[in-house]
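Progress against Task 2.4 (sequence-to-structure conversion) is shown through the following example record, which the project officer requested during the mid-term review.
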Amino acid sequence: MTTELLIANKTSGKIWECSNSVSTVSWETERTGAPGKLTFTVIKSGDLSFTEGDIVRFSVDGQIQFYGWVFTKSKNRWGEIGVTCYDRLRYLKANASYGFYGQTAGQIIQQIAADLQVDVGDVADTGYQIPSLVEEDQSCLDIVESAVQQTLLNTGDIYVFFDDGRGLALRRPEDMKSNVLIGEKSLLTDYTYQTDIDKQTYNSVKLARPNEETGRADVVEARNEDSIEQWGLLQLYQTVDGDVNLAQMAAQAEVTLQYYNRRLRTLSVESLGVPGLRAGMMVLMKVPGLGDINLDQYVLLEKVSHTWENDTHTMTFETMAI
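Structure tokens generated for the chain above:
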């Protein structure tokens, strides 16, 4: 395994290859709500000089793992510099106000990226035009995630918003399947399997729309009586924009119920590292005798954390509901 850590100083134009001066590198990604993050500690040597905003690129065996910018530096008395870097999604933490009407999540991403002067990579066409999305004084990252969530709740299709190394990207997990198998006798070192109905399980979905004529909200409900009898009433209540009609509300409630009306099965995994594996990708896992199931399927990765230390690459990850 060959690693390469490049730091480029924008002002001087100098580039340093620092892999020999770094003992540990960590790369973290999450499927939603957070930029990719790279952390490392480099020993000050030679003419190494860089500052916030300078570019960092980390590669393993010629494959780029992370491309981003320095945001935080710290230094101790022995000359060790702790560095935290983020990818392009970090720039979408800027707050803004937007009103989008009849636009897809991809079109919303394109507009926000243009306004913030952030590069765009591979943006999928979801095919779903969001009737209206109005946000005031919200982070642009939250606005995009809201668009992605609205697409999910109305179509049942999951999309992942991330930095693909070239720019902001939106892709389906099915288009990002890893060709690696993780399981017993294949990279897996430890796991924790959990089932619950506590956090993201609902068997009743109520959608409310303001009605200016009556002064009351129009409410549409979708519910599953079988799971209500088994688990008790677990209700999700959400408001929708006034531009959404009752038929659209009913369709959205049914799709939302189908997504949330299930017992969550999730895995927290420790394994040997797979370069390039990031949150939002799918990986094939085979673990027989996994609680109440024999796991033999692709799983969607919710969080992934890689560590390269002393020529050893390990990772931990959490899955979405299995």
